[in-house]
Amino acid sequence: MRVESPRPLKNGGWFHSFDGEAPMLPPPLPKPQPPPPDMGVIMQRYWKAAHPGLEQEAELLGVSAQSLRWLGAAYAEERKALAIPMYDGTSYNAAHPIGIRLRSRDGRKFAVTGSKAGVFYPYGAYHAIVPNQRLLICEGPSDSAAALDLGFFPVGRASCRGGTEIILNIIGQLWPDEVIVVTDNDGPGVGGARALLEVIPRPAKLFVPPTKDLRGFLRAGGSHELLDSMVKNLLWYKK
Description:
This is Toprim domain-containing protein. It comes from Chthoniobacter flavus Ellin428. By secondary structure, the chain is an alpha/beta fold. The chain has helices at residues 39-49, 53-61, 65-70, 141-149, 164-174, 187-197, 214-219, 224-232, and strands spanning 74-76, 81-86, 99-104, 109-111, 119-120, 134-139, 153-157, 178-182, 204-207.
């Protein structure tokens, strides 16, 4: 039997109190979250556009457009930035990045929303450079591109201490004869490189370029032969 309350509500119902207190309402359901963006779909769009900005960015960086393409880079016109995919080291397919690093023309670095930090990996260079002889671990995509221009196969860290587990996974897959950890010529870079060297399971060396970074070494006239000679004279890292 329905009982009419003296307090009608606007929606046509009636408000009833219980012992002078309002009834407990269940907590609101959480709002459904949109699915994370598909980084592969985003990069496919950039690759398909084939914007000539890639060549312009390569010239500004002092590396070749080919080395950037080997890293899967493309120019994102909508972002006015160079877009470089990041990978988690578990997929052999360049079309499945986990994140996208963006670099604007003024040098600002950011990422596509929803990106996860990974490593920069030159899937496109497999046919040109043997990856399991000497593997270079570099800091950032531009140094990775410089390593490719110098004729070496790189894996690029997103930061000076990032991607350790991914790098170890890649080393386990490639099992290179030797690993050269290339650092920027500064304290944080050297510290991050030494921390990585402590856990690398292969013969390894630390290379600190005489310039700011490996890209600076390339732009200053560095060559494959010179870098090879310098690396051969380095001592093996002792843990």
